[in-house]
Amino acid sequence: MLQKFALAFKTKTIEFFADDEKEEDDEDKASISAAIDLDPGPEEIITGQRVVVLKPDPLPPPRKPDPETLILALFATISSFRAAYLHLQTAHSPLLPDAVRFADRAAVSHLRRLSDLKDSYFQNPNPSPRQVFSFSSHLQAQVQENQHLLRTFDAVVNRLQSDIDRKDAESAALKRSLWDIEAANSKLAKRLDRACAPPDGKVEALLSIGVFDSVLKDTCRVVHRFTRCLVDLMKRSGWSLDLVANSIYPNVDYAKAGHCPYAILSYIYLGMFRGFDSEGFSREGSDGIGLDGIDVNTRRMNSLTQFIEHSAVDPLELISGSSSCDFAKFCERKYRQLIHPGMESTLCRNSDHGESVWGTLWPSSPLYEPFVNMASSIWTLHKLAWAYDPVVEIFQVAGGTEFSMVYMESIVRGAVTMGSDHGKKSRPKVGFTVVPGFRVGKTVIQSRVYLNGLKEVVQFHV
Fold first, then answer.
1. pTM surpassing 0.70?
2. Do 260 and 403 fall within a single domain?
3. pLDDT at res. 56
4. Contacts 24+ apart (CB under 8 A), 155-160
């Protein structure tokens, strides 16, 4: 029994001490016989002896990890978590399910590792198996931290490379699209050259009523835009639109006060189109159609060429690059006719004109850009009109003329064309022409007029 007890606790030395030194030899023999007997009977009793068992030394209490090693382990674990989380984000775009699962497990394991480090710092009395640290030295912790940083950089590089590849693909697609557009533009340019210079000198294929009407509508939109800008300046400067309208067209019975800007719009239209029926539209004192000594085909080809060339340039760049060209002279002349110095000084007194001269078109003026665009549209329309055979004619209706549905159109939408005069039906009278009309061959493009006494007309029909 003593031998089994000694083997269980891995002891190698058993000493027996006798009370009487004289019986030492006999007791040694008895202890040897008892040790040999591996299974003594229960009736055997050993008396007069002490048994001393040497137990192994107890394990020392767990020590708190070295602070420096713990900090290095903390940094390394944080770096590992950052790398795993970055891999998790990268795996979502494009979506890679296996990579997502792997990165998710890695991130969770690093979070657990951080929890273990916290428990180790506070010396958890019951540490879990995960709390066995793998960092045996400062250098090993630094090596692992650097490895995780390299993984982070690798993920960033992979993402950047993916972005570069995507942008390279987009750039290649845009280059192919640009080549296709340039090829299509080249074909269109060749077709346009053939249309502008046909073998027999005819240009009827390009010139039609629809083309002129489309360019005219674009011109009207630009004129309306300039007029709105001018009216806004008048309002901010304290001008009375009623007084301005009455000074332009007195004794006109407006349907409502909001119709006064139609008089200003008419003033702009008729001023800009003055001299439209002259070949020298840009020159001073050129009135009436001048066809003497001009070959029809030459005139048509020159006008059509100028129409195409001017349509392809920016009017602001043209007038700033060449102040002595015909278009620049046209802009200066029309600006002086419409905006006299006293009017401009009142409207633009708060703007920075610098060293500009009143009555001269200047880039610092708030009217500069809208006016140049308006003048460019009318200039283009004039060149197109003189490419027709016969030349497109322009006309306007005098005030007091009876309304005609053939040549006129009311500029007020929904206005009626019949009124009453002392119980008798009569045609309404024209107050003034707003947009002039045009005659293209045998086709008439109606002028747009404001009807005088429109209020009474509306009351009669209601």
1. no
2. yes
3. 59
4. 155/83, 155/86, 155/87, 155/90, 156/86, 158/90, 159/90
